[in-house]
Amino acid sequence: MLSQPNNSSFRVPDRDFDGLTPLPGIEACPAKACEIPELASLARERVPGVQLSAAELDIYCRLNPRTAFSFVRNGQLLGGIAFLFLNEDGLDALILDRINLRLPPPSMLAAPDDEPAAIYWWALVAKGRGVGGLGQIARVFAGAQYRHVDFYTQPSSRDGVRIITALGFERTPSWQTDLWTYRRAANREAARSEAHLRQAA
For domain 17-200, which CATH number applies: 3.40.630.30, 3.40.50.300, 3.10.580.10, 1.10.287.470? Predict the structure, then answer.
């Protein structure tokens, strides 16, 4: 899921994803068309199992501009992250291992203006301090459209497991191989409130 050069001194903070703050100097914005070929190339080179071509990634970015974000520092592309915004059918298919995660059918994706049923972390790749862009990604997903939408992912490397564990992901039971879930802070707060009300009743 993530690959960094061995000489990188930057480490992902051991902090819940929803509590991340932007790292000064690192920009995270929806990927521009001119950045997509390099992002796709980086992912294929550094993330085990990724085969998505630039043309294929571009198709999904046209369906939803927030599919891919680039991490940039001083004008240099350091990597990026890609997501699948799943609708109810897509989430069911994910849990039951009935979705082609390399080329998911658009019928399983939520419309850009809709609240998705789940957000799948498709691929994360960064060089050096690029992974610091996750702080800005956390801000994007703190908005009303996404704050109650849980994350899912499947790490494909030790780096990936290390990162998602640090961010608060946990393994989840499913038919899908090695599926991990991150329950959003807003959902945890709601669950605690419901539990408190039940105890008080």
Answer: 3.40.630.30
